[in-house]
Amino acid sequence: MLDVGADDVDALVRAARDEAADLVVVGPEAPLVAGLVDALGAEGIRAFGPTAAAARLEGSKAFAKEVMRDAGVPTAAYETVRTVDEGLAAIARYPIVLKADGLAAGKGVVIAEDEAAAREALEAFLVERRFGTERVVVEEHLAGEELSLLALCDGERAIPMAPAQDYKRIFDGDRGPNTGGMGAYSPVAGVDVDAIVAAAHQPVVDLLRERGTPFHGVLYAGLMLTADGPRVLEYNVRFGDPETQAVLPRLRSDLGEVLAKACDPGGLAGARLDWAGEWAVTVVLASAGYPESASKGDVIGGLDAISGDAEVTHAGTAARDGALVTAGGRVLNVTALGRDAAAARDAAYAAADLITFEGRQLRRDVALRAVERP
Asked: In the chain, what are the domains?
């Protein structure tokens, strides 16, 4: 393991050079927005991920909405504001969605049910500068089920991955504040991925190429399946969490091979991804106080009892005095495969319930709608 910070661009480039890396796959959004791919390219190191110019799709909510508008992508009506008064004046009806313009680790979105909640959010974003932003996107609230669809992009085309459904709210029944994601499952029945890519991904790839900032990497579209069809809520420019934990275990194609191809303009021509017929369910275990805060230092137990039937991905953990402890809001992801949604769900929760730490939070309804749906 390299002792290098994920946001230290210069150190990451040195490490890639020292290790003679053939391919660097950039995971987090912050180094992408900071230009890590650009810096690696300047050193002749191949990197999977967008340049800083293309990564603005995630780095700026306002920029992403402008790109959607210009590319003809179906999305919610919006207005970008800079003051609390402008924000309140832009609201025609409630509920309303308020988005901090910059990176916010999945927590810069508030669904305000009334004027008091809207004012509180606008003041937090624009007066307190909670996420360091000077702008807020005031966006129409859309109703329906959420869908996440990731696509691999080579600057010219978008190749869809398997769809997933994410659970953003902290509590069962989609109650409570938004989080970075409390669980996910894949596949999602009845979704026409080719049609969604044609409407939500390919127009953006085409527009950015025409502008001279071609998009290479993962283009993640977070969508709402409304009565009027899919609408894009947001874009991420990397493998989204926790959807990736539910999607990649089902992939049967050589991941390294397709990521390398995506680095070259047009490199994915003729590429096709193969998927297992199994279902995957991921359950997130979060620390006490999340998402408003995160309890750290709580000892984690039970990992040794988990069999090979489930996969545990560490997110916010650390080693302390010989013990594994919590070190972030979302602590662990537990993923299991099954012949159907019910089997995968049962296996994921059986494994998750073996893990213990003080104040542990988890949703109990991840993938339940997939089980109950005819």
From this structure: 9-48 (3.40.50.20), 77-140 (3.30.1490.20), 145-262 (3.30.470.20), 279-372 (3.90.600.10)
